[in-house]
Amino acid sequence: MPDCTKCGDYTRFNNGLCTECYNKENGNPWVSGVIKGRIAETIIEQLFISLDFQVYKYGMENTIPGILDLLKGVRGDVSKNIRQMPDFVVFKDKQAHFIEVKFRKSGKLSLKDIENYGAYPFENALFVLVTPKHIKCISYAELKAGKEINEKTKNWLGKRKEFETDSELIIDYCKYATKFFENVD
Q: pTM surpassing 0.85?
């Protein structure tokens, strides 16, 4: 039975740290992920506001506060749909779009990243990927068709026909993303 190299408690990792010692030394990775996600959401929210969109927070944490605790252990289509609610609804020129924001240090986003809970229920959603270097965008339909975002793809948010956005302003917001995420693990 392997023991934690710090406290001696049982760990399933040979010559490793138990979860408690790992979290003390490195911080809780779940909390770190939540913080990175919220920073990315804030950057994108402010970007769309700067582009004269009306932006409404839509995700489960905004629409149904406290629901996350209630959904622990709950199975079924309703709980899956609630967990997968996009982060924002944005409006401009009588057009509305669901926006799901993701942060990935790797710069990669594929269908398997989206369908963790099964088929994604928001067929017309757009995924905005914030990385330490870029802001890119891909539709759910494109993901379903086998496309993905990686470091080499040119899925620039500023080139999306849905937005006809100001590329220079998006470049400014890319600089914010770089500033906040350049040293992120």
A: no
